[in-house]
Design goal:
- The chain is mostly helical and 110 residues long.
- It has 3 helices and no strands.
- It is elongated and about 55 Å long.
Length: 110
């Protein structure tokens, strides 16, 4: 069987075809780690704005992961900026929550 097109309708199969099982595993692990981080921040923060932002980002990342089963948004160059901004927001929010955590709380891991 020969793949006659350079396009696949699933981001996960694209990573599997282009980089093998290792690339797919790394991709899923990195994406999942960001999703777990933002979901954990949603549960830990007391600030209503950050809580709302964290929930929105968590739901966006979840729908993007599901949408990638039937479309290729995580492999499309047009989505690279959007995904990069989302992942950057996760890092910034996490840093902000840790900075404002009560003394001793920043050491706690979920």
């Amino acid at each position: 069987w020969v793949l006659r097109t350079g396009f696949t309708h699933s981001s996960y199969s694209w990573y599997l075809l282009k980089g093998g099982l290792v690339a797919l595993t790394v991709f899923v692990a990195v994406y999942a780690s960001f999703w777990v981080a933002i979901t954990t921040l949603y549960r830990r923060t007391q600030d209503s704005f950050l809580k709302g932002l964290s929930l929105g980002l968590s739901l966006f990342m979840a729908q993007l992961a599901v949408a990638s089963l039937g479309a290729g948004p995580l492999t499309s160059p047009g989505y690279a900026g959007v995904v990069g901004i989302i992942l950057g927001l996760v890092v910034v929010i996490r840093r902000e929550v840790i900075r404002h955590a009560p003394v001793g709380e920043e050491q706690r891991r979920d």
